[in-house]
Design brief:
The protein is α+β, with helices and mostly antiparallel strands. The protein has one domain (2-67). It has helices at residues 54-58, 64-67; strands spanning 2-3, 8-9, 11-15, 22-26, 36-37, 44-45. The chain has a two-stranded antiparallel sheet with strand order 1-2. The protein has a two-stranded antiparallel ribbon with strand order 3-4. The protein has a two-stranded antiparallel ribbon with strand order 5-6. A hairpin with a 6-residue loop joins β3 (11-15) and β4. The protein is globular.
Length: 74
C-alpha cells in the first residue's frame, strides 16, 4: 500500500530472524514500531543496533520517516 499524497510505501514484509516467517504489515505513519511479535514462533523482535525500528531492521521497506529522508527517533 502506498500513501498517494506522500508517495511513501506503507506496507513492509517483516522476516523473523529466528524462524524466517514472513508477514506483510502496515507501518505506522506517526511513530516507529520498536517491538514486533512474530506470529509464527512468538519471538519478540527489537531493532538492530543503529536502526530506529523493526521495519528498518527486518522489513523489505524502511519506516515512513526514513523513506521521507527524516531522522526517526523511535
Amino acid at each position: 500500500m502506498e500513501d498517494a499524497a506522500s508517495g511513501l510505501e506503507l506496507t513492509s514484509v517483516l522476516a523473523c530472524p529466528k524462524c524466517g516467517h514472513r508477514a506483510s504489515e502496515q507501518m505506522p505513519t506517526d511513530a516507529c514500531q520498536y517491538f514486533y511479535d512474530c506470529r509464527y514462533c512468538g519471538a519478540v523482535l527489537k531493532p538492530s543496533p543503529g536502526d530506529c525500528c523493526v521495519f528498518c531492521s527486518y522489513g523489505t521497506v524502511p519506516c515512513p520517516p526514513i523513506q521521507a529522508g527524516n531522522r526517526c527517533d523511535g
